[in-house]
Amino acid sequence: MKIDAVFSGGGVKAYALIGALQSIDDKSLAFERVAGTSAGAIMAAFIAAGYRTNEVGELIQDLDIQKLLDPPKISSIIPISKWLFLYFRMGLYKGDKLEKWLYAKLGNKDIYTFNDLKKGSLKVVVSDISLGKMVIIPDDLQRIYGINPKYFPVSKAIRMSAGYPYFFVPKKLPGQSKRKSLIVDGGLLSNFPLWIFENEGKEQVRPVLGIKLSAYPGKQEPRKINNALDMFHALFSTMLQAHDARHISTSHTNNILFIPVKQVASMNFAISDAEKEQLISQGRQKAAEFLERWP
Q1: Does the annotation mark 128 as catalytic?
Q2: What pLDDT, on the 0 to 100 scale, is given for residue 227?
Q3: How far apart are CA 243 and CA 193, in angstroms?
Q4: Nearest 5°: phi and psi at 136?
Q5: Model's pTM, two decimal places?
Q6: Which among 8, 121, 127, 185 is annotated as catalytic?
Q7: How distant, in Å, are the alpha carbons of 5, 232, 239 from that of 170?
Q8: Composition of the chain by helix, strand, coil, percent to 5
Q9: For 134-148, what is the mean pLDDT?
Q10: Which entry of 4, 8, 23, 38 is annotated as an active-site residue?
């Protein structure tokens, strides 16, 4: 059976998505269209590019995430300079290594721009903080920025969607005015864009499966906030959840696979192999239980 799927963001918690994909494979479900935000956009892009579940698992599991962190070179000589970089460039890491890794892996499947993908097969959510808009790539590129979506790099779209504020430097997009837009993590405005394949009241052509790396909104535990860093994470997490929580209705929950990952922080790039395996196992188990009654 063919389905559409929407993947939420969640940083390194996305290892659980590998396990979920394994259970989806076991049910002989095939993806026709996929969408995602941040880490979910990475998974969606690999699927749209034609990677099989076992190949996606190998890509993500073999990746040393810390090698994708690229602070300015001067920070290794003058450590305090990274805070100046944060102030003036608005991020600790450039994000170039992440984009190059995505470009290379997608290139292995001959996917470079959105023109190389089946039309409508991939949608990526980003946040334009200059214009104060949620942007869907490739759909909104022509209308908002005058950019031909056919020639826009898929790797760039994914890097922008995964641009966690203050962690990665915002990407810039030229627009229809002289001033460029700053683009950050799509999760700022919609971390779980379940609405993206809605047909404005028309009947769905295929079932739409949402995969969310958290518990049902009403069942989340209160956060412990002891310092400014905790407060920042709490603020961003609140923004991540606010828009999507209002959109998730009782009827929607029948099509949402919730994977309540609690044991790992989203930005824990020092995650151990044992923690990765635990997340994969958790995702596989939760998906297997959910798919017994879905679609």
Answers
A1: no
A2: 76
A3: 9
A4: -105, 120
A5: 0.87
A6: 185
A7: 27, 17, 18
A8: 45, 15, 35
A9: 96
A10: 38
